[in-house]
Amino acid sequence: MKSRRFNAAVCAAFLLLGARAAYAQHTGHLLRPLIESAAERLAIGDRVALSKWDTGTSVEDPARESAVISKAVAEGQQANLAAADTTRFFKAQIEANKLVQYELLSRWRRAGFAPPHAPVDLVDTIRPELDALQTKIIAALASANPVLENKACATEVARAVGRYTFEHQFEFAALRAIALDRAMAGFCRVY
Questions:
Q1: Which of 79, 118, 136, 187 is least enclosed, having the fewest CB within 10 Å?
Q2: Is the pLDDT of residue 169 over 90?
Q3: Whole-number Å distance between alpha carbons of 135 and 72
Q4: Main-chain dihedrals φ then ψ at residue 116, nearest 5 degrees
């Protein structure tokens, strides 16, 4: 009798572990496009930093940040996303991008020069790229929206970002991992 109960308990434990693993894999698949888009947005931050290096422009641009968030909220509402969720996520994207810019600009200032580069046009080249990417991010945000209902949202996001950074060998790996963690910290309602 004890053997049957033990076997049933072991089977139940394995089923539970299997269900958790399947859920984590499903969650990772839902988050992957969003993480990839956030990483792509951060990569554009390098060119934003170069533009700001060339022009001496401040990293802080409250008017642009406000416009980005307003446009994202409007697009997000068309995708049935809550305004608060979209606002929180895009604020995190902006803060993560500024983190990259500040770090790169400081690195170049310490060295006394930026890497060799062609002039970077922030207004006519970079911003249209960011605007197009924003539409992609909104779609990925809508697809990943079910993860928000999970109590373990922050844990799932941290694991998914960890997998992504492990799979990609970033230049300036520590900066990229920290910035991506910051960018994705805005996804969950509580992080």
A1: 118
A2: no
A3: 8
A4: -60, 135
